[in-house]
Known about the structure:
The chain is mainly alpha-helical. Helices cover 79% and strands 2% of the residues.
Amino acid sequence: MKTFCARPILRSVLAMALALALSLAGPISSAHAQSDDAAAKRFDRIERQLREVRDIVLQARSTGQPVEIKMAGPDPEMTTLRTRIDDLELTLRQTTGQIDSLSQELAKARRDLKALESDNRALQDRMAAAEGQLASAAQAATQAVTQAAKPTLEAAAPAKAAAPMAVPRPQAAVKATAGAITAGERTAAFQRAKQLLLDGQFPAASSALQDYVDQYGDTAPNGPEARYWLGETLFIRGSYADAASAYIGAIRGWPPTVWGAEAVVKLSMSLVELNRIKDACRTLDEFGRRYPAAAPATKARADKARLRAKCA
């Protein structure tokens, strides 16, 4: 609150009133272009200010007492604007902090990605090395089965030549007989020998299948299969060395048949019985590589043989 003498300030108050009226003339005229409601509120405020100035002048003229003038408070619009600016500054600070945090997380993610890429390259190198070792092992197993197994089995079965069923016919007699027998008779001979096996007459089936193999060999369409069934009759009778020799003859070329996969498993089982553990495990490894789509029952027998041989 400020207090003044009336006479010294009379002229200044009148000048203020005149200046205020002139300064408000422009805004009053432009207010008509705005909405009626806003213009009416502004005009009321101007009139109120003019009345206050007039009251001050009249009081000073009539009484000669000091005049009391109350200074107006802050502009509400300016206060609102300042509040909005403060809110925007606060929001800006918060957004800047979030951006800094995201930048740090992005940098960490990039470092983690580089570490993962390095680990991935190292893993690929290790996998390539392991695949090379597996390929070498598979090649060694193939050579062991196809080249080394048969001589080993022949050495382990010195009495094979003495067995009545293994005595081959003279070569001339084989050729003469083969030329005289038709394809139908050959097929009938194979079916008779197989039927003896199915009937449980294992000694007779073994002799008939051995005769078929000796007479026609692998040139007949059923030659490899006849060797497989011959191996079955020998395996059932406990002649594991002869059975293994028959199975080896049956799986030459790895025939893609049901009995081909069975012959490989039975060969490994015969080798286990002969205590040829290393050869048995190599044969089982070759079975897994050559016959991945074998029947579940055949795979189960292979797993059982692997457990018995204690293969790695």
